[in-house]
Amino acid sequence: MLAGIRMSWIVACVALATFPATAATAPSPAAQLIASANAERPDVPRVELAARLMMAGLTTSPELAAMRENAARELAGRPDGVGGVSAAELAAADDAIAREIARLRGGAPPSFCALAHARGRPQIPGLRIVYLNPLGSAEAAHRWQNIIAHQTEGPAGATKSLALAQFANPTKRGVMLWVETDGTVYWATAESAIPTQGDGANRNDNKYIDNGPTYHAVVKTNTVGVEFNGNHPDVAKPPSEAQTQAWLVLVRFLQERYGIPSERVYAHNWIDFKDKRYCEGCELATLARKQAYVPGSCVITGPPHSGETR
Q1: Residue ranges of domains in the chain, CATH in brackets
Q2: pTM for this one?
């Protein structure tokens, strides 16, 4: 009898393999549209996906209903599926979706400054960015005053897993943003989270900069950390060209979003006594300062764009 049961199970498996699922179980048009959009970029804003679904006439699809709720979460600075969605949050999402439809139909793209003050998943020209945690209101974010460039001795390709570990435990030792050797940026924590970084700004020898203003002052509670992974096994290996180019855009975005002047961009070695084999973050911080970006110098005009706050 047992042999007969086994034979029936084998026949059933062969039948499933021989006669694959029919069109009834094929991906829906909405699912196909979402998959197509996600194939083009590593992290497409949920507001944009909802707008594309509406433009395709898929207004009654369950995918649009779920995407609309995640768009509301996105604009509130929450990941997909996290927390309930209020009527006010849904209304804000509907407004943002309508603006995104207008943009997709030929409206003017948002300016750099508008993007820097936006909620959700701002798509910054020149950056390939994945928001493990989307952005909320810049005004409600933690009052960040400094930026530190770090480098970590991880192998190339490990950045996503490092960022996911930070996302799962935001206050553990690490940083808010991680950068892979190919230039991909991972925004790992909420803007209100305070990861454990640095060693208390214990450097006071003025070796690289004047440490008078930084000694025990540039610390985790007031500093955004950006970690550049990939200098394993040679710690003296500089950041890749892709990492450097991503940094030059990302640091301006952070400066504009949080109002941080160029003189408050630091290398980790400038702030703490670090590994003597190399100067951690020094090349990156020097390049950032040379840009001399002045936050708040641009004026945002016109109607708000998707996710933008004023």
Answers
A1: 30-107 (no CATH), 129-291 (3.40.80.10)
A2: 0.88
